[in-house]
Amino acid sequence: MKIYFTFDPRPDLKEKVLKDFPDVEFIFHNSIDDGVLKEAEVLVTYGEDIEARHIEVAEKLQWIMVASAGIEKMPQKEIAKRGIVVSNVRGIHKIPMAESVLAHILAYKRGLVWIYEQEQKAEWSRKSKASELHGSTALLIGPGAIGSEIGRLLQAFGVHTIGCNRSGKSVDYMNDMISFDALQNTLPKVDVVISVLPSTPDTLHLLKYEHFKAMKDSALFMNFGRGDLVATDVLMNALIEAEIAHAVLDVYEEEPLPSDHPFWQMTTVTVSPHVSSHSSRYMERSLEIFKPNLRKWLVGDNELINKMDITKGY
Q1: Of 40, 41, 108, 219, which has fewest CB within 10 angstroms of its CB?
Q2: pLDDT of the residue at 291
Q3: Reported pTM
Q4: What is the mean pLDDT of the chain?
Q5: pLDDT, position 101
Q6: Mean pLDDT across the stretch 230-246?
């Protein structure tokens, strides 16, 4: 069996994979070689480097392991037509992303940006406008594994958590649950709105201007899921019109965010360059999912951990 990684893992992690599967042929590149792809039965990729033509070239391909959570940039129709199994690393992002979200909230609430500015100016001032996170209410849109971990941390700070998903079905570490249908009526009650939704046809521009108008003018909006949750001009207008107080964004409709984009200059926006999931343990955790899946695959079991429905995007 030939397994093709379109990236080159850290040497120590790569050595462990080779040691655990001595009878499997692994090829590690930092790009895609059509000659190797033509012979590969399993492809391990971050997803963004796969185009429709690659699926045509990969005549023997049966399984794509995506070392990421999102598959929206992959040629989904071509993969589905071939019946290729797709799995991802859903769940590995929950710790770094939850810590990133909490860090941004605390930085905003406790005035850390102002403190850092004073430090740079060597100016002693105690006119901080810090507020408390304790006693506030947070709405988490799309609370899966990541949202539940965010909820757990927020509850430790005395925050009331409300989860929002398509069904309204209960999720761990949410004090209350609502469905998408109840979103408009719930927004006026919350202080922090956090989205960790994936990109699917159902979530495209889910949030409209009326949703931001329904939020408190003191609300903090955070998008750590996918940038197409809200149209850029809608969010910008909501900020300009002071419908909300501040937005912390890790994802955008256009990435990289152009250097001349207004968000960079807006004091009501914190720009994070899609790094909330970054961690020194990212690849280690990805391989912890890949290796048991490979053991299953080698004995003919294709019911893999995090097996996805490529046509639905999750």
Answers
A1: 41
A2: 98
A3: 0.86
A4: 96
A5: 98
A6: 98
Contact 221, 215 (CB under 8 A): yes
CATH 3.40.50.720 fits domain 2-92+280-298: yes
48 confidence band (pLDDT: 50, 70, 90): confident
Q: pLDDT for 70-129, tens place per residue?
A: 777 899 999 999 999 999 998 899 999 999 999 999 999 999 999 999 999 999 999 998
Write out the two tokens for 54: 């690659």
Q: Where are the domains of the chain?
A: 2-92+280-298, 94-271
Task: Give the pLDDT mean for 130-159.
Answer: 97
| Tokens found for residue 59 | 């005549």
Q: What CATH number should be reported for the domain whose range is 94-271? A: 3.40.50.720
Q: Which two tokens stand for residue 215?
A: 């939020």
